[in-house]
Amino acid sequence: MDKAFLVAQLSSRLQRMNDVALRTAADAGDDAKTGAQRALNLAAAHAHRSASTLAAVHALDSFRPKPWVKGAPVGLGALVEVESDSGGRTLFLAPVGGGAELEGPGGDGLFHVVTPTSPLGRAVMGKRPGAVVGVLVQGEVTEWTITWVG
Questions:
Q1: If you write DSSP's letter for every residue of the chain in order, what string do you get?
Q2: pLDDT tens digits along 6-15
């Protein structure tokens, strides 16, 4: 799997989110000129969202995931297949962009972006194929089995 393709896709998606936040902040800023507190708050919130998203884009600029070495523990940049009683997922561990869903080249597969600070990301970091991890989801522990790492 071309991990650079996934990083580029995630960066592009974050850049589009930043563009939307900037436009919305500008529109709210125009409304704020009337002095409406709600518009002022909205403009500030979207400006903050833009700054956060732009910081994420910059974090991806230097992110170069390496190929996984067989037998190595899961680390940043890994592709990880996990399965639970409710089905499976393929994860892409990235430094930012948690919650995004990416498509592989040519529509080859769906990848769920998780960060090392997310509950599932934290659970799989450092583990190897075959490991079972428990993740608290909506007040209940869901067990995931790591079936493949790449």
A1: --HHHHHHHHHHHHHHHHHHHHHHHHHHHHHHTTT-HHHHHHHHHHHHHHHHHHHHHHHHHT--PPPPPTTPPP-TT-EEEEEETTEEEEEEE-SS-TT-EEE-GGG--EEEEE-TTSHHHHHHTT--TT-EEEEEETTEEEEEEEEEE-
A2: 999 999 999 8
Same domain, 49 and 106: no
Looking at the fold, whether 33 and 87 belong to one and the same domain comes out as: no
Tell me the per-residue pLDDT of 41-95, one tens digit each, with 9 for 90 and over: 777 787 788 888 888 888 899 999 999 898 899 999 999 999 999 899 999 999 9
Lookup result for tokens 């529509």: 107
Taken in order 149, 64, 2, 15, is the CA torsion positive or negative?
positive
Is 71 within the bounds of a domain? no
Residue 83 shares a structural domain with residue 54: no
101 part of a folded domain = yes
CA distance 60 to 11: 6
